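Researcher: Checking consistency across runs. Here is Tannase and feruloyl esterase family protein again:
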Amino acid sequence: MSENHAIVFGASGLIGWAMVDQLLAPYPAPGTFASITAVANRPIDLGEAHWPEPEAGRRPDLRLVSGVDLRGDAGALADTLRRQVPNADKITHVYYFVFTSVGSDLEEEVAVNKKMLQNVIDGVSSLSQSLKFVVFPGGTRGYGIYVPGGTFTAPLTEDMVNNLPEDYAKTVAYPQFRNVLTEACRGKSWTWCEICPDAIIGFTPNGSQFSLALHWAQYLSLYAYNHGISPRAQGTDKGGDKAAVVEVPFPGVTAGYESLCSPVSASTIAQLAIYAGQHPDRCGDGRLFNIADADAPTKMRDLWPRLAAWFGLVGVGPEARSDTEPLPSEYVERYQGVFGEHGLDKAVKGGVGAGRKQLDSVGTWLTFDRQLSLDRLRAAGFEERRDPIEGWLKAFEKFREAGLIL
C-alpha cells in the first residue's frame, strides 16, 4: 500500500463525485492510494453518497468533510483541514473540481474562482510538504465556444487556448488558474496539469447546477410517464415498451443535432486525473490534455435516439416548436409534482438548479463542430476508451437508484 493521500475539492459535483468513486474503485489498482479526503461545500450524507462501500485491504480510507467554503482565506482553510483531516500533513495529490457562478459579471466570476484556487493551493501547501501533483479541469469554454459559431475550426487542439481573443480571455477563469499554479509550484517539488472536457456526463446524488444528463433524464422520465410508459418499461437501451410508439423530438435545431462533438463521462475524466498524478513526467509541467470517451467525434443524431430509448421512447430529430410548447426545464417544472406523488421528493429538491436555462439552449446554441483532438492525450499513454452512450446510461441508472427520476 502506498502512502498517497488524495484530497478532492468539489466532491459533491459531477467530476468530484466520480473522482472519489474511481479512487475507491480502486482505479487503476488496489494500493494506488492509502487515503482519500472528500471536501464539499454542500452537506453530503455519506450513507447516501452512492460511493463503493469500504473493503479492508483493497479500498483506501475515506474521510468526508462537508460545509467547507473556499471563498474565505487560505489560513482559515488550512485551519479547517488541520482540524478535520487526519494526516493533512501527508496530502500528496490535490484534485480541484470547484467552480462557482456569480451572475452576469464574468470578470468578477474569474476573480472569485481564482481566489478560491489560490486559497486551496496556499492552504494545502502550508500543511503538507508531501504534495506531488495538482489537477484541475478547464473546458471548451477555454476554446471560445461561448462566441456564437465558435472561435476556432475543429478539431480543437490544446495549443489553440493561447490564441483566444483578449476580450473573451478575460472572461474565462482557466488562464488565471494556470497563472496561479505556475507561480505556486515555482521552485517546488510538485507539478500540475489541466484537463479539458466538453460536455461532462455523470452522476451526483444531490442533483447538480449544470448536469445535462440529469436535465434530460428528468425531462424524458416525466415525458415517458405522461405518455403512458411506466417506469417498469423503461431502463434499457432497446426501446422500452413496444406496445406504443411515443416519439420525443430532440430539443434543439437541426444544426445542433448534426454538429460534431466529444462528450466525456465524468469517470473517464477521473481516470485521467489519477493517471496524470501517477505519471508526472508525462503529464506534469502544466500540460493541458483534451479528454473524451472516444477518439472519433459523435453527433446528437447518434445519441438522442439511444437516450430516449432507455425511457421507452422513440427519439427523433428536431421539429418546429410553437411558443407554447415547453422547453425541458419548463416541462420538468410543470410536471415535477409527479415525482412527489411517487415519493421522490429528492427528485424535486435535487434536480438541475441555476443552469437549467443554459441547458435548455444546448440544442440551439451549440450548432457548430467542436470536436476535440486526443492526439496529445494518446501520446502521453492514456488509453481508456468507451462508447459515448455508456456514460449516459450508467448515469440514468444511478439517477433512478438515487430517486432522482421515476
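Researcher: Does this match what you'd expect to see?
Model: One thing to look at in this run: DSSP finds 17 helices and eleven strands in the chain.
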